[in-house]
Design a protein that fits this description.
The protein is α/β, with parallel strands linked by helices. It folds into 4 domains: 1-35; 37-138; 143-186; 248-305. It is built from 8 helices and 7 strands. It has helices at residues 4-33, 141-159, 162-188, 190-225, 228-246, 249-304, 308-311, 319-324, and strands at 37-45, 57-60, 63-73, 80-88, 98-103, 110-115, 129-135. It has a 7-stranded mixed barrel. The longest helix has 56 residues, at 249-304. The chain starts with a helix and ends with a helix.
Length: 325
């Protein structure tokens, strides 16, 4: 039999476990029962609310703002369905807003979409009715979907026929063989392809360098063209062209012709003077040569007989004869 201490520990464990479970239940249900929500109603007349369920979402322009908490028939008007919604506290619902029933995909489930409010309209008080909008009917959508699915299955069945499958397998085999050939060709020509890639890279680098040189040359030409020196040269050329246009070209040509004639005459005179000077120069050179020959002969006589300087000589053709004359 369990002892008294074991019973006490079991009791404490049960109490603590119960408190933990109650705390968890209170935590998860407090938001639902303790958090304040704004309650509104929507009355749909002669509109099917099929697909709406308690707990279905309520969205405002695509943003979830609450849920449906109740759906019932109006006891005073059996053609009217009253839907009770609870929205987050402070959700601004205007008086001209409408609540439409829209589908959530092709499952048949629906939700309420609130939209159409204007800035100028007043806010709707809590507990009032939101204007009912339209209901998006999905009648016939299931049939359309089924028909499309049938078409898809029929196309898939035709596609998977044995003849088509055989053609597909042949195409796959040919593609595989072609890929094998391409792979073998790449493997055989790997070095050539690598060389081609390197050559292409070198050419690209050269083109890059060339483009940089062209860009720098273009920049230099641009600086030269738009520099002050070129502007001054162009201005000077324009001034010269204007002066040439204003000048008397005929008179200038005549003056140039006279200058050319005078220059020609001067050259003729210089030529004649040079010819005369050359003749005199040749004559002087001949006389100088004769004098040098005489001096040479005299020096030989003096060397052979120094007494000639005392007693003299009667040498024919001596330089003294030319001096006396």
């Amino acid at each position: 039999m369990p002892s008294r201490a074991q019973k006490i520990r079991l009791g404490v464990f049960v109490v603590i476990g119960s408190l933990a479970v109650i705390s968890l239940i209170a935590f998860f249900t407090s938001e639902k029962y303790l958090r304040k929500r704004d309650t509104y109603f929507i009355g749909y007349e002669d509109v099917s609310v099929s697909g709406l369920e308690v707990g279905s979402p309520v969205k405002y322009l695509g943003v979830k703002v609450g849920t449906i908490t109740d759906i019932r028939i109006d006891p005073e008007d059996v053609s009217r369905i009253i839907v009770k919604v609870e929205l987050k506290e402070g959700t601004p619902i205007k008086k001209d807003a409408r609540a439409d029933i829209v589908s959530m995909g092709i499952t048949g489930l629906k939700m309420i979409e609130i939209h159409g409010a204007s800035k100028e309209a007043d806010l709707l008080s809590e507990g009032e009715f939101i204007k009912a909008g339209s209901s998006e009917e999905i009648t016939g959508k299931a049939e359309v979907v089924a028909e499309k699915m049938e078409r898809v299955f029929n196309n898939l069945q035709r596609f998977t026929r044995p003849a088509n499958l055989e053609k597909i397998m042949q195409m796959i085999e040919r593609t595989s063989a072609a890929l094998d050939q391409v792979e073998s060709m790449l493997r055989e020509n790997r070095h050539g392809i690598q060389k081609s890639i390197r050559a292409a890279q070198d050419i690209t680098a050269q083109l890059d360098t060339t483009s940089q040189l062209l860009q720098s040359s273009a920049d230099r030409v641009h600086r030269i063209v738009y520099s002050d020196t070129v502007a001054q040269i162009l201005a000077s050329t324009r001034d010269v062209s204007i002066k040439l246009k204003e000048a008397n070209l005929e008179q200038l040509i005549q003056q140039l012709s006279q200058v050319a004639d005078r220059t020609n005459q001067l050259l003729i005179q210089v030529n004649e003077g040079m010819e005369r000077g050359s003749v005199d120069f040749l004559s002087s050179m001949r006389e100088l040569r004769t004098t040098l020959e005489n001096l040479n002969s005299v020096s030989r006589l003096i060397q052979e007989d120094p007494s000639v300087l005392v007693r003299g000589t009667k040498v024919k053709g001596a330089p003294d004869q030319y001096l006396e004359r």
